[in-house]
Amino acid sequence: MLAGLLDLALPAECAGCGAAGTGWCARCASGLATEPVAVRPRVAPGAPVWSAGVFAGPRRGAVIALKEHGRRDAAAPLAAALARMIAVLRQAGELDPPELAPLILVPAPSRASAARRRGGDPVARIARLATRTPPSGPASPGAPDRAVQALRLRAGARDSVGLGAGERQRNLAGRVALRRSAAARLEAVPVPGVVPRTPAVVFVDDVVTTGATAAESVRVLADAGVTVRAVLVLGHA
Ligand SMILES: [Zn+2]
Q1: For residue range 179-227, what is the model confidence (pLDDT) as tens digits?
Q2: Is 21 contained in some domain?
Q3: Does the residue 89 lie in any domain?
Q4: Could you tell me if residue 91 is inside a domain?
Q5: What's the total number of domains in the chain?
Q6: Residue with more model confidence, 51 or 72
Q7: CA 151 to centroid of ligand 1, rounded, Å
Q8: What is the Å distance from ligand 1's center to 16 Cα?
Q9: Residues with Cβ < 8 Å from 69, sequence gap 6 or more?
């Protein structure tokens, strides 16, 4: 009876590897705790691209569990990995330290229909959680400041699965749009008595393949006067 009740509250298997009786197993946790690697997708987004690692193992398992199987609990370890990646990049001087610039995470645009089907946008969820996740370990110069869902996909963009680099670029051309209501939130927040610090805007996606989504998103943000400092992804293909 008690076990039955606990099953309702706790996931029956690890979202990373499927191990039974655990929410997120220790092996998958250590598999996600890696150093960010610089990647060069075929379509260059015009900002440095950093990945948490090859899109495989617990990384891939957690993303698929979250996006395809509605395992919302899988967002937490992915958010922790993202927060850790930001902390490491700040320490390495690739991103400004928190005392110099707050960070704004802009999640990759998704189609409204897909987000509805999935009970919310998974990448936006990861970005939001990452802003509240203090990174673990000695390298922890603070969490990023906020996530702003500033981009959306206009109707007409197809799911990019199975498309080549050129097809992806054509599929996305003109389809990524800025949400007007969110644009103002990308600017410095005025605090009385404090010189406003221009935030560092970082684009976040679950996986980078050709780079077409990141490139189009960076371009749309640049058109709106927003410079993207880096592209962070949880895995690269
Ligand atoms: Zn596992």
Answers
A1: 988 888 888 776 666 666 788 999 999 999 999 999 999 999 999 999 9
A2: no
A3: yes
A4: yes
A5: 1
A6: 51
A7: 32
A8: 4
A9: none
